[in-house]
Amino acid sequence: MPVTFHLLLPLIFLLTVFGPGFQSVSIFPYFSLTLSLYYVTHTQFFNLLFLSLALSLGSTFAYLGVLQNHEWALEGILITIGSCFLIGSVLTLPFVIYKVFLTRWSNLHLSTLVFPISWTGVWIVYYYISPIGSWGSYAYSQFGIEPIVQLSSIAGISAIDFLLSWSASVFNLLLNWEYFNSFQTISGEEQPLLATQQRDRSSPAEIKLPWKKLTTPVGIYLSAVIVLFSYGAARHNILPGSFYMKFIDHAIVPTVKLGCVIGNNIESKQSDYFDQTRDLANKGGNIIIWSESAVSVENPKSYDSLMNQARNVSATYGIYLGVTYNKQYPGEKYSQNMVTLFDPKGQIAYKYQKSHPVVIVESHIAPGPKVIPYVDTPEYGRLASAICFDLDFNTFMRQAGENEVDFLLQPSWTWGPIGKYHSEIQSFRAVENGMNLLRCSSWSPSTVYDPFHHIYAYKQNLGVGSMLAEVPLRRHTKTLYTIFGDLFAWCCFAATLLYVTVSWIPLATIGKWPALVQLLNAKQ
């Protein structure tokens, strides 16, 4: 392998630093994955270790400040490095699978699908077993490109994973066009990578038919991209009830006022939080929640006091009020991170305990049941709650879509540089599950998103303040993801397992199945 190919590694590293992390440039992941595939195409297996190192180091610098708060701590840096190298190892697996394909098979169409299928399959396993949820996903780098964001309504962020990796695979095909249509030395022997395709010549009559080009890997990809982008753009821009050219008096929808009281876990300010709640209610707030762990309750007396005040305020002003608190009585080893929602009559609608405390940072907090509670209301539909880090677990949040939640009320609290990024990646849950999302957060943006990823409120803060937003009263929107969940991603994983299994079978044995040989164009 020429030394010049190794010069791609610093570029891959740099593109990864500004790819999926805090300082994301949406186009860079396409370049990073494409150049990584280009490197893999022309390298030996051993050199994939260098690729893994470049991806791991890039991920480290992309997320380096994740555990930092005002000051850089060595412990946080070391934990981040270890986590990102683990993610880097996961990222390398699809490249290994792709390299195995290049050494054994020569089907042009499959050559562009092996990587996206394995990439999507590996990531869905990561989403289900990772203690940090979907953190690290390349899909989130597409925030702001609305036609792509809308694809998460089809198959979750796995749909974006597939599009990203498929794009890179097709771009790599174009970069290596001569390679994929000529003889290439593999494992020390000169063999045709695409033996069947390279000698296949279409007749003049066939060449004149444009649709023939649509059956090529590039044609299939471009056709799919056109369809997907059209769907995404239409979903974002053409709202229900607005088609076709409706006048505003026919297209306008009722509104609801959502309030957010921002606190930072200081018990002495409990009265201030209720004062802010009353102020928002006087301004017309219908649903008001507090940011995560706004107050602490340390004994039954303080707990009863908080509940009684919340009950009185909600009943007096006729509002839905979600109060948040960190509950830990003397002698208890772990605390409970809670939100309790009161209805306009002062009755408790539901209580919810945070299901996913942040690893390491919240080791003192006991995880709650993995169930999202909800309540049906006559005015605003179905309300539900989950707390902060819970929304990073896209597989957990599917409950909200399956239960047709209309408004998800999310108390949150973050630290250091992660606030903006955190609010962005969690907004994908609104699109996936067809719901409105009120994020009331301390030390990070408080936001309101609708099911089509329109943002109706955005407020930065330094741990205190309030926000009131008047937003369209849109009900739950059915999405393919709420119906089929992660079926597409698990099909990709199953296909990956099948391919890995077949790859262990000697070529001599595979030769006994002519149909399989013809499908894969196995090298003999």
TrEMBL record:
The chain crosses the membrane at residues 47-66, 78-98, 110-129, 149-175, 218-238, 483-505. One of its GO terms (biological process) is lipoprotein biosynthetic process. It comes from the Eukaryota. It holds the Pfam family CN_hydrolase. GO terms for cellular component: plasma membrane. It is found in: Cell membrane. The keyword Zinc does not apply. It is a multi-pass membrane protein. GO terms for molecular function: hydrolase activity; N-acyltransferase activity. This is Carbon-nitrogen hydrolase. It comes from Basidiobolus meristosporus CBS 931.73.
